[in-house]
Amino acid sequence: MLQAFDQVRKLMRQVKNGTKTARLTPGVFRRWADETAQTPDVTSTAGENEGGLQFDNPFTLADFEVFDDNALKELFRRNSFGVSLKELALALHGENSTLAQKISRQLPLARRLRFRRELNRPASLPKIEAARQKLLDAFFWELTYWKTPELYEELTAGEKLHPGIFRDLAASLRDKTVLDAGAGTGRASFESLQQGAAMVYAVEPSPGLLHILETKLKDTPAGKRIKPLQGRFDAIPLPDDSVDLALSSSAFTADPEQGGEIGLKELVRVTKDGGKIVIIWPRPQDYGWLAGHGFSYVALPGSSKMKVVFPNMKVAWQVARRFYAHNRKLRTYLKKQQRPEVPFSVLGFNPPHDYCWLTVHKK
Question: Residue 29: CA atoms inside 13 Å, Cβ hemisphere, count?
């Protein structure tokens, strides 16, 4: 077993250096995921900030007003993003009664009653402030998608996926019907079109990101082959067996708020028998979960050379100040290089050079 792991470890080094492609079966993928979870230093490509908060959070409780009733219902029907019901009530304690009432109305009955009890409990100011900051930090990305989607577009526009990913998927995309779940502003949707997809359903919960996608489609001759739809992983607005391939790029995770078990069941439901589910740029911490659900893993060569390419230095600095405020390595790099191209290693996370895939069997 150790010898086999050493061989995979060697292969991953060759992938990083640009000489090999790794294609791991579910069994090998699972063993590798288990081993690397115990010895993360073996394969980690992340920088010093992975897992920490790199951003300065500009949001306030008032910004939660951007969420519509359906979004609030989905976000708070369970303990989302590590925020308990007690912490949610603490965060709203004595601050914004309108927002508290708005959230309360969307909670399931049992949670609503408990929430109201917690909201009326006496609490110290330090505990309230700590809960409030935890809530804002936990929902930073959801607030970004809904409140400032144009800034998210600036962040992700330069994060080009490894070109080999969609070349690998070309045969599965050509003349096929595709779901892009968690589509954002359409990065994977447009890539699918370029590989000859007949139709792409771009499903995204954020109205702001969908609006940016719709604006892009007006300027795209083939835009009629992309249909934007508002929806979440746990309720994909498509009928059973409606797509040949369901993919999600930098969106689906093992967490229930971003897919999880229910989300995977939804992806299976809408995918035809014999079709594929593809998770592009998965989080390393989800490797074990994905392997346990039967996914194979592919890592394409040259990850160490991949960079984020911003349109200019102004945008690079805007993104750095907004999303990487605590990343000193990035600030030093931009000052020294004076170029709007930044290696993923400087940003502190795994580059978009890999994907997981699963063939759907229903019969």
Answer: 26
